[in-house]
Every structure is written in structure tokens, then in C-alpha cells.
Amino acid sequence: MKTVGIIGINGMVGQKMLAELKKIKTPIEIKTFGRADEITPLDIAILCTDNPISKELAPKIKDRVKYTVDMSSEFRMTPGVPLVIPEINPQDITADTRLIASPNCTTTGLVMSLAPLKPFYHFEEVFFCSYQAISGGGKKLLDDFHTPGSYYANNCVPLIGSVQPNGHTSEELKGLYESRKILGLPALKVYCHTVRVSVENSHSLGVTVKAQEPFNLAQVKKLWNAFPNLKYSEGVITPKEASGQETTDICRLRQDVEEPNVIHYFVTFDNLLKGAAMNGRQIAELLLERFV
Fold first, then answer.
1. Residue 75 to residue 214: CA distance in whole angstroms
2. What span, in angstroms and rounded, lies between the C-alpha atoms of 210 and 117?
3. pTM for the whole structure
4. 192 vs 83, 110, 136, 289, CA distance in Å?
5. Does 155 lie in the same domain as 110?
6. Number of domains, the chain
7. Which site among 11, 137, 178, 184 is 20 to 30 Å from 271 CA-CA?
């Protein structure tokens, strides 16, 4: 029987990944490992580990594992390592691929909304401000959030990740560089501002897109609703409704009041599912279907 292993089973993403792998219809044996456990031979290993552990483990297990899916940011921008959202760029995984990276959660929500429009509109600029849930910071941040007097309670904190020499945070730079790689648009201008908000689960983004062509709103809505795991709603969708759902939800689409080639909209999605474990499960399903 084909074997799929989760390394880092004790973390939030590891536990979510276990639940997701149980949804796979292909018969598989699921094996689980702590970060320090000896890894037995596997068809697919999913690293639910932070960057230093992924960096150490990936080369160490490559002779025992046919395919490795890494959920951290360690290899996302490494040349030759595909950064994959199966609805968008499954073709980036080939028979010769051995290591696949799963993208940043916030980037995932953004590019899910852009990918259906890409064949019809030439993007000039993309701006987003994120409203990122506490669960995106892991169990430690969730515990802090539920502690009386938490800095994050009833608050918005405009700092996620580490501040880089250019003043942008590591989270904001992921939104720029990962979007370019996933969409295959290396010159795409993406302006990012990331904010941690007092919401337990599900990330959201306020997005503005400028294209060369005027947008047709009816066409945009139709393209979104025809895309897998993406849904546009005329009513307001909030993180509360998105939590626990597999779809990426979009609402409040409107054309700019002065520029018909500019649109604004709101995106919300479960950051632990499509933003993490669900995407990892989809990559595993793709590998099982095509290569394992």
C-alpha cells in the first residue's frame, strides 16, 4: 500500500494534515512522526515543520522518500523547487520533481483570486492589506491570545514576521515573491501590508487590482465561480463563515469610481485548510494520481 507520512504531527498544521489525509480516496497508509523521530521509507513525506527542521530533514530523508512536500517557507523561492497550488499550477510538478513547496497562507488567498482572471486581463499592479487570524501564528500565539491581557486581544497589530532591511516584513515579501512565482509573472507589482487581527481563525484580504484592460464585472464573477474551490457571493462573507470551509470566498467586488481598469474586492478563507493542510493534501493527491 502507498505510504504518506506526516513529520511534525504534534503541531497545529500536523494535526490538521492528519484530518485532511483521511479524506484521500486512494487507499493509503498514513504514518506519523515527531520532529526527532526516525523516518521510515515513504512514498510521500509531508513536512509540517518550521524552517530549520525542514532545512535539516529534506536532504536527510531524500533517499528514503520518493516525494517530499514541505509546508514551511524554507524552499519556496529555491530555483527548481515548484511552489504549487494544485488549482493553479499543477503542471509545475513533473516526474523528476522530488521536493515540492506549499505556499504562504496569505499568498494562497490572493493568487486564488487572481489566477482565474490571468488569461483575460494583463495585471499592472496588485495591492492588498491582510487581516490575518491568530491561528496563523501557531499554537503559542493562540495560547497567548486566550491569556487575559493579551496584546492581540481586541487589537490590530501591523507586524507579522521579521522586519527586513528594506522595512518590509518577511510576511509582506512572501506576498510579493511567492505570488510572482506561482502565477508565472516575474515582473508583477504586488504591494503588500500584512496585519494580525483579533480573529481566531480564517485570514482575509482587501485587494485592489489594476489591469491594462477595463474589467467586466459580470465576467469576473463568472470566472471566479467557475474556478475550483473558489466562490463569489453577492452578500458579505466574513472569516466566521469561512472557518472550516474548503472554499476561498470573495465578496464586495466593485469597479473603481474613476478607473474602469481597477477593481476592489474582499477575500476570506480558512488559513489552516486551503492556506495550509488542505493544499498539502491536494499536492499529495496529485502525486498519488500521477506519479506514485
1. 37
2. 12
3. 0.97
4. 19, 11, 17, 36
5. yes
6. 2
7. 184
For residues 231 and 225, the answer to whether their CB atoms sit within 8 Å is yes
Type of residue at 178: E
70 and 88 housed in the same domain? yes
Nearest CA to 105 out of 65, 133, 125 is that of 133
Boundaries of domain holding 138: 106-270
Euclidean distance between CA atoms 34 and 10, whole angstroms: 7
Residue 202, helix vs strand vs coil? coil
Say yes or no: 114 and 230 in one domain.
yes
Cα separation, 226 vs 231, whole angstroms: 8
- For residue 148, give the CATH number of its domain: 3.30.360.10
Interior CA angle at 32 toward 31 and 34, to 5°?
150
CA-CA-CA-CA dihedral for 252, 191, 181, 283, to nearest 10? -40
121 and 30 co-located in one domain: no
| Whether residues 195 and 227 fall in one domain | yes
Q: What is the DSSP string of 219-254?
A: HHHHHHHHSTTEEE-SS---HHHHTT-SSEEEEEEE
Active site positions, annotated: 105, 203
What would the grid cell of residue 93 be? 510538478
d(CA 126, CA 19): 34
Give the integer Cα–Cα distance in Å for 5 and 34: 11
Distance between CA atoms of residues 243 and 157, nearest Å: 21
In order along its 292 residues, the chain shows pLDDT tens digits of: 999 999 999 988 999 999 999 999 999 999 999 988 999 999 999 999 999 999 999 999 999 999 999 999 999 999 999 999 999 999 999 989 999 999 999 999 999 999 999 999 999 999 999 999 999 999 999 999 999 999 999 999 999 999 999 999 999 999 999 999 999 999 999 999 999 999 999 999 999 999 999 999 999 999 999 999 999 999 999 999 999 999 999 999 999 999 999 999 999 999 999 999 999 999 999 999 999 9
